Amino acid sequence: MRKFSISAILLFAVLFPITGKAQEVENTKTEINSKLLEVKENFIYTNNVPVACKFNLNTESETITSTRDLILLKRWKNRQNYLWKNLSPKKFVINASAYTAAADECGKSDGITASGLKVKEKRTLACPPSYPFGAKIKIEGYGIYTCEDRGGAIKGNKFDIYMKTKSEAFAFGRRHLTAEIVL
């Protein structure tokens, strides 16, 4: 039955792809197993403590509709469930730089990220290992990016924004930017 449900969902996703901007989940309260769960700004709270994020594949800049990409992100979500519980709804400062898919930077030039997705300008973000693949991060002044990649120097508050050309990446340099998790 489970395989049928997953197949049906994937077939629906292919026939009727998700489009448009990410929409915020309305604030709701639900009682499950005598625990009050509350959804505010796409975070799930229990007793006013954030315990999980609502997983959403839409971003303002790019919608992931490929069946392969949906399957990959779903697998990562299941494997990295513990990371989703640690995400905070508060704004934070990132030390941002830019990278390209060039062989001299990545060791290969096929553009396939650590998550298995192909890099995409204005969508792909290399995040520290404490951020799960598929997490959406809004970077003030730049838009919403998806954690899809890792890197040897990407630790702590360091993030790498994918850019198509080296001239764009060099011009971006390194900046301290305000960011927040959005889903």
Task: Please tell me about this protein's structure.
By secondary structure, this protein is an alpha+beta fold. It has two domains: 2-82, no CATH class; 90-181, RlpA-like domain (Barwin-like endoglucanases, Beta Barrel). It is built from five helices and ten strands. Strands 5-9-6-8-7-10 form a six-stranded mixed barrel. Strands 1-2-3-4 form a four-stranded antiparallel sheet, with no helix packed on it. A hairpin with a 2-residue loop joins strand 3 (43-46) and strand 4 (49-53). The longest helix is centred in the N-terminal third of the chain and has 14 residues, at 2-15. The radius of gyration is 17 Å and the shape is globular. It starts with a helix and ends with a strand. Mean pLDDT is 75; it is low at 1-28 and 54-65.
Task: State the main characteristics.
2 domains; disordered N terminus; 183 residues; alpha+beta; Barwin-like endoglucanases; globular; 10 strands
Total count of domains: 2
CATH topology of the largest domain: Barwin-like endoglucanases
Q: Please tell me how large the radius of gyration is.
A: 17 Å
Structural shape: globular
Write the SSE topology.
Layout lengths: L1 H14 L12 E5 L2 E6 L2 E4 L2 E5 L13 H13 L1 H4 L7 E8 L3 H4 L17 E3 L9 E4 L3 E7 L8 E5 L3 H7 L2 E7 L2
In short:
The protein has 183 residues and is an alpha+beta fold. The chain is built from five helices and ten strands; from the N terminus they run αββββααβαββββαβ. The protein has two domains: 2-82, no CATH class; 90-181, RlpA-like domain (Barwin-like endoglucanases, Beta Barrel).
